[in-house]
Design goal:
about 270 residues, alpha+beta, Chloramphenicol Acetyltransferase, seven-stranded mixed β-sheet, 8 helices, about 40% helix, about 20% strand
């Protein structure tokens, strides 16, 4: 057995973070009809002159569902549950060479139109891939130079400051509530349909979502099995924050927004009824 001599930044963070699991995780996946979504996205792109991917579309739907179910948009602090005051989404961004992993937070995602959400995400992701994002550069520079044992302590410190205390220390690259309401990763471009993840120990999100590939699959439409473009969303929920009934109601609304897209949800979010 040969020791790996070179560890990328994310691998070091992972090794410094995870311990033996005493997990409250609940896993599940949802397959949705993508026909109406793809048609809506095509029309929306032409109307708003912006590139829309299914990841943008599904992320916006998740943000709106979190707005409707604010009890899920919570975190564990001081041994109890605190409800967040806004919906922020953290979307994973791979480095340009695919060898490292980062991400960016879209704040108040529920208040943005789909066009605003998409433009902001694309701009931030582009800066990260070019290595020009100041927050990303500061954080990665710090992490790369620190040995794993010390990094383990630094991650715990960052978690305490950013999540428990809800404070930021810009000089150290520690933001307040760094991962927000949900962590979202697009695995569809990798050709993957379904994936699941534990919660990183330094993230106090109640929800992790993987958005799988949109592809033609057997699907039941009006009691007939037909070939249909569908998408699969895989999710991990924190059972300390939400139970099965709450998850079911949340998923019901996510499905509704994805399969019955409308401007009330995606372009005029302020008009959505609670």
């Amino acid at each position: 057995m040969k020791k790996v001599s070179h560890l990328n930044t994310w691998r070091k963070i992972a090794l410094a973070s995870w311990k033996t699991s005493k997990s409250p995780n609940v896993y599940g996946f949802l397959e949705v009809d993508a026909k109406a979504a793809l048609e809506y996205m095509k029309t929306y792109q032409e109307r708003e002159e912006v590139k829309i991917t299914y990841t943008h579309f599904a992320s916006k739907a998740i943000a709106m569902a979190l707005k409707k179910h604010p009890h899920i948009n919570s975190c564990i602090r001081w041994g109890t549950i605190y409800e967040r005051e806004q919906v922020d989404l953290f979307l994973q961004v791979a480095s340009s060479d695919g060898k490292d992993l980062s991400g960016t937070k879209i704040e108040k995602a529920d208040e943005k139109t789909l066009a605003q959400f998409s433009r902001e995400l694309q701009e931030k992701a582009s800066l990260i891939r070019k290595g020009d994002d100041p927050q990303f550069k500061k954080t990665m520079k710090t992490m790369k130079r620190i040995p794993i044992p010390i990094l383990r302590w630094l991650i715990r410190f960052s978690d305490f400051v950013g999540n428990t205390l809800q404070m930021s220390i810009p000089a150290l690259g520690i933001p307040r509530d760094p991962f927000g309401s949900a962590m979202i990763s697009s695995i569809g471009p990798l050709g993957i349909d379904v994936g699941f993840s534990n919660f990183p120990t330094f993230a106090r999100t109640p929800l992790v979502v993987f958005i799988g590939k949109v592809a033609k699959r057997p699907f039941v439409v009006e009691d007939k099995v037909v070939p249909r473009e569908t998408a699969i969303l895989s999710a991990t929920f924190d059972h300390r924050i939400v139970d099965g009934a709450g998850i079911g109601l949340f998923i019901r609304d996510v499905r509704d927004y994805l399969e019955n897209p409308r401007d009330e949800i995606f372009h005029y979010p302020e008009t959505m009824k609670e």
